[in-house]
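no rush on this but wanted to send it before i forget. what follows is a protein written twice so to speak, once as letters and once as structure tokens for the fold. mainly i need to know what kind of three dimensional shape the backbone takes. thanks a lot i owe you, the record is right below.
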Amino acid sequence: MSEVYAARRDRLRERCHAAGSEAALVSGNANVRYLAGPAPAGAALLVCPGQDVLLCPCDPCGTAAVTRPVAEDLRVVVLDGADGDPAVAGAERAAAAGAGSLAVEEHHLTVSRHRALQSVAPRLRLADLGPAVEQQRLVKDDEEIASLRIAAEIADQALGELLESILVGRTERHLALELERRLVDHGATGPAFPTSVGTGPNSGLAGHLPSDRRVEEGDFLSVCVGADYRGYRSEIGRTFVIGTSPADWQIELYDQVFAAQRAGREALAPGTPCRDVDRAARVVLEAAGHGERVGPRIGHGVGLENDEDPRLTPSAMGKLDACVPVTVDPGVHLPGRGGVRIDDTLVVRPEADGGPELLTITTKELLAL
């Protein structure tokens, strides 16, 4: 993996040089991990002529990420003192090395940290690196996709086991905690994001935080869960009915959301504008009379972060590339009644390779549990 990280840093170095910066300071946690391998939260990476430097905050526990970085060609510096700021230390080192310009991730720096960088290296010209690393991260390599595939398998396993247990009478909070425990049991580092479980009138709410409401007969039960495996994050959302058979309104609503989700999945292809994927799913729900109930987006990218580019929204710019993993996750919530969310993680593939690769494979049939 060291060669992979080195190649990624070389790409960033070339981009910085082309823009007129002699060095780059990367401070976003996911971006640091992408370029340097596992590192403690708050670490900063200085990409410069000569040997790149990973600056880590003082960690009295001595984590493995500090003492044994994956990118073995990096120089690792653990700062002394609890108040040491890796980004500030990186700017100092760049100036000491004779750099005249330094590109920084302004969107990952507070105003006060940016001022601190300038104060310790007043002769260093600071430029905005912008989302350069995030753009590099968009297209995943085979190993990244393999990690995402395993993360999806773990989430599928955890959800499948939950559905085989007794659900009536248990609280949303209890079910969410059990799902997260099962993720770890199957090899995940932990959940990719706070697990959402909604029952009855809470079902179908995007990002619903589990409450103490208990599962009842006749409820919709919606679940959104994801696994973090080696830093890569999957996402799956499903909706079920509790009881022997769903009501007519539940079947109708489920079929509408399912049709929208299918339209969004089928629109995924290299070269497709991101907004067209959103539109493909959104028009189905608008035609069903749910236009005002559809959320601001139909999906988003996944990888080292659960919510990253590209965004599948009505105003999204840009087009999809092959080997870009995204979610397609439309939902509709009817106030006071409940709702449906269906969410998959997929990898964009050309038609010649079979079209979009579905990573989350738990059935999307409307199951009565």
